[in-house]
């Protein structure tokens, strides 16, 4: 990783000749009529430049800038601009702002987010962001890409059926927030006043249903408690703004407690803008302003919908609705022109921070980037490393893995995803630099006999089963590459079942029964799958989850199977049994169990029933042990004043002196196995009792490479107010007083949080 980072830094830092085909967006020094205008003067603060520009615009011109396809203002030398581009896990052509072709035929396609997050490696996440923004800037310079990327998706994977769960950082709010901040920093750079590209955390908030059982996202009213909003749904967005300094937040299609998110001033203006301090713009999900009028019937007229959205804090409409109805809203006195100005202040400021009003592209900091900086060997190498780090070893009975090229000379490669290419990159992807399929990757280690067994992942019949069984019967080892693809789980498509589609289970069992050598089950999916049958089947000694591993996925899978890479990934979501779905509609938003309705809790924090695999599960080819070398037993908390609580003793976070209030834990990690490996250390806290507190919650994670026989000391610092606090029913974050359990693998430690004044009372 360090070697790759060094090469990457060299490539970023060095200048080169590139193909420049984009015209100057604004403030062209060759345009004497505009180059001297105040908004074009780089010596003037951006706030003054924006104010000057807005003062020159007519109302019609202002409104023409409120949509994603912003109009040109020729008299001021400003070109049109398409705001909508996507870069979820590589530059994508999903949005109209980016197009592949010519000298930019492709871009590096990293693993889908759910796979990358399984690495639990924040430095990797940021490195991927840096590569993606390099390629994005290069394509912008070439006139085929934008600078505003509506990524990442940081919604919580609340329900395992959600088709877009693959896009998310999983079910834990802290992991999702850490991912958001890391990836955003990689995309945007570390200069808070300037932007490499502008990222966008979406979809705010409580959005995790697309189309389930006749309910779609356009008609869904998410009824969410203040408690769940504060301790689950808003956490990644708050971290994205406050720690990642993201340049944009996207509001979602759904209503939250009866109000469309894009027209809710409590969510947009009060929370995002004022409480969190967003330095950027708020954009609607595409056509969601039209949806709140046409579909949700939230307002009586389109002008009211436009006015309500802008006054609530919306700055940019992905769609034509504001462009069509804002002028009439002003004429009808539903909206002031100054409200429109406030929206433009936020969007134009971002464009100026991007350098779009700084004249010639070539003279700007990233002006040297071009075709030579896209799909480079270094970028492809990072995509491979990301896939290797994200793949999770779920089962390895009797050390069946890794396979040996000496003992397993012939490998039967079977399954509908065995020759997957495009399926490996998931959704919101672009055109990859190239692909290595699983069967191609395995062919690099052994002679392969390839039989798909099923025509596709739906596996509707057994016509191809016999040939697959015969291949397994004669091979030294068998690798079954099964699972899902975008025809099963995707945007607009939630699942109704956690089982493998069609006859996949039957194919697996028949092949396993007949196979001569070890049978390895490799699963591609975004969401969890109930494979209890395979976990219990002794004829299937090893199971690997590859997620959607990106363009280099086949190589990464083969490297893991044959031991060139030692797996270290951990599941970022719980794998539930099919029975979990009984009596659990996707529309039920409660994170905590509702015993009166027989509703189980959601995610590892609130669900304590049976699982196929728990959150954080993942094996290695070696074995690690932990020992807590040093950690305090008592932490005093200074209290600002007297404070009651819902249940038991606690201190409201706003009443505690939180600055530098940290729990430092030193952990020795020892590799007692036979291979070098990378260990993912997950640190959980179990707060003192209370029916509204989580069973446990992740408070820190670190990834550390440890050689055979080596011991490494890892220090984690846990911010007490952020990570040892819980949220009461009223949505207030509190620090429970008393014993908190810190759990790292089989090791545990108790730390007592104590109020340092008499200002805490028990209610």
UniProtKB/TrEMBL annotation:
**Subcellular location per the Swiss-Prot or TrEMBL entry:** Secreted
Source domain of life is Eukaryota
In the record, what terms sit under GO molecular function?
Answer: alpha-L-arabinofuranosidase activity; xylan 1,4-beta-xylosidase activity
Signal peptide location in the record?
1-21
Listed SMART domains: Fn3_like
Which cellular component, as a GO term, is one annotated location?
extracellular region
InterPro entries xrefs: BXL, Fn3-like, GH, Glyco_hydro_3_C, Glyco_hydro_3_C_sf, Glyco_hydro_3_N, Glyco_hydro_3_N_sf, Ig-like_fold
List the GO biological process terms: arabinan catabolic process; xylan catabolic process
Q: What keywords are annotated for this sequence in UniProt?
A: Glycoprotein, Glycosidase, Hydrolase, Secreted, Signal
The UniProt record lists the Fibronectin type III-like domain at 679-748
Sequence similarity: Belongs to the glycosyl hydrolase 3 family.
Q: What is this protein called?
A: Fibronectin type III-like domain-containing protein
The organism of origin for this protein: Arabidopsis lyrata subsp. lyrata (Lyre-leaved rock-cress)
């Amino acid at each position: 990783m360090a070697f790759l980072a060094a090469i990457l830094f060299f490539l970023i830092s060095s200048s080169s000749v590139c193909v420049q085909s984009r015209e100057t967006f604004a403030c062209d020094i060759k345009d004497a009529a505009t180059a001297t205008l105040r908004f074009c003067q780089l010596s003037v603060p951006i706030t003054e430049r924006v104010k000057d520009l807005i003062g020159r615009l007519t109302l019609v011109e202002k409104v023409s800038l409120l949509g994603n396809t912003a109009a040109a203002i020729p008299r001021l030398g400003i070109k049109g601009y398409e705001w909508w581009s996507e870069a979820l896990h590589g530059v994508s052509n999903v949005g109209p702002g980016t197009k592949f072709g010519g000298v930019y035929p492709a871009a590096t396609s990293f693993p889908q987010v759910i796979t990358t997050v399984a690495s639990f490696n924040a430095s990797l996440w940021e490195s991927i962001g840096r590569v993606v923004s390099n390629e994005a800037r290069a394509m912008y310079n070439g006139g085929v890409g934008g600078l505003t990327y509506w990524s990442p998706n940081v919604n919580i994977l609340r329900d395992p059926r959600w088709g877009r769960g693959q896009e998310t950082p999983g079910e834990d709010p802290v992991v999702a927030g850490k991912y958001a901040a890391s990836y955003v920093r990689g995309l945007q750079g570390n200069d808070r006043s300037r932007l490499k590209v502008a990222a966008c955390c979406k979809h705010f908030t409580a959005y995790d249903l697309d189309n389930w059982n006749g309910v779609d996202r356009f008609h869904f009213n998410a009824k969410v408690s203040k408690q769940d909003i504060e301790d689950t749904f808003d956490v990644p967005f708050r971290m994205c703004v406050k720690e990642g300094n993201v340049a944009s937040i996207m509001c979602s299609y759904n209503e939250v407690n009866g109000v469309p998110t894009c027209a809710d001033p409590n969510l947009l203006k009060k929370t995002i803008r004022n409480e969190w301090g967003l330095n950027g713009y708020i954009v609607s999900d595409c056509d969601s302003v039209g949806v709140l009028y046409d579909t949700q019937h939230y307002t009586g007229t389109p002008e009211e919908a436009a006015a309500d959205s802008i006054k609530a804090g919306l700055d940019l409409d992905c769609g034509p609705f504001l462009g069509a109805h804002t002028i009439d809203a002003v004429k009808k006195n539903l909206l002031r022109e100054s409200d429109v100005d406030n929206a433009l202040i936020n969007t134009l400021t971002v464009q100026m921070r991007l350098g779009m009003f700084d004249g010639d592209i070539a003279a700007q900091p990233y002006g040297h980037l071009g075709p030579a900086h896209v799909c480079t060997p270094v970028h492809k190498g990072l995509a491979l490393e990301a896939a290797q780090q994200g793949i999770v070893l779920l089962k390895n009975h009797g050390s069946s893995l890794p396979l040996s090229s000496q003992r397993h000379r012939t490998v039967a490669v079977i399954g509908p995803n065995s020759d997957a290419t495009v399926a490996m990159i998931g959704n919101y992807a672009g055109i990859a630099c190239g692909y290595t399929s699983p069967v191609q990757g395995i062919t690099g280690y052994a002679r392969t006999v390839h039989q798909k067994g099923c025509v596709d992942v739906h596996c509707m019949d057994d016509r191809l089963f016999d040939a697959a069984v015969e291949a397994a019967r004669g091979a030294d080892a068998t690798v079954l590459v099964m699972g899902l693809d975008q025809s099963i789980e995707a945007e607009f498509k939630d699942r109704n079942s956690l089982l493998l589609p069609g006859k996949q289970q039957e194919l697996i069992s028949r092949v396993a029964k007949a196979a001569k050598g070890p049978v390895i089950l490799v699963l591609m999916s975004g969401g969890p799958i109930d494979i209890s049958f395979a976990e219990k089947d002794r004829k299937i000694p090893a199971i690997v989850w590859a997620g959607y591993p990106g363009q280099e996925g086949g190589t990464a899978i083969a490297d893991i199977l044959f031991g060139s890479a030692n797996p270290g990934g951990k599941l970022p979501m719980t794998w539930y049994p099919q029975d979990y779905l009984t009596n659990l509609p996707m529309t039920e938003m409660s994170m905590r169990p509702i015993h009166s309705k027989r509703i189980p809790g959601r995610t590892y924090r609130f669900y304590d029933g049976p699982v196929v695999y728990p959150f954080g599960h993942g094996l290695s080819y070696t074995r690690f042990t932990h020992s807590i070398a040093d950690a305090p037993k008592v932490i005093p908390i200074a209290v600002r004043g007297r404070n009651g609580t819902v249940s038991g003793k606690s201190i409201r976070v706003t009443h505690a002196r939180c600055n530098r209030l940290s729990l430092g834990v030193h952990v020795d990690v020892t590799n007692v196995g036979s291979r070098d490996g990378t260990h993912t250390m997950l640190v959980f806290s179990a707060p003192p009792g209370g029916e509204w507190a989580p069973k446990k919650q992740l408070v820190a994670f670190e990834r550390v490479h440890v050689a055979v026989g080596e011991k490494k000391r890892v220090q984690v610092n846990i911010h007490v107010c952020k990570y040892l606090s819980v949220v009461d029913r009223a949505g207030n974050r509190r620090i429970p007083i008393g014993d908190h359990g810190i759990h790292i693998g089989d090791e545990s430690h108790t730390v007592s949080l104590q109020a340092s004044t008499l200002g805490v009372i028990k209610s």
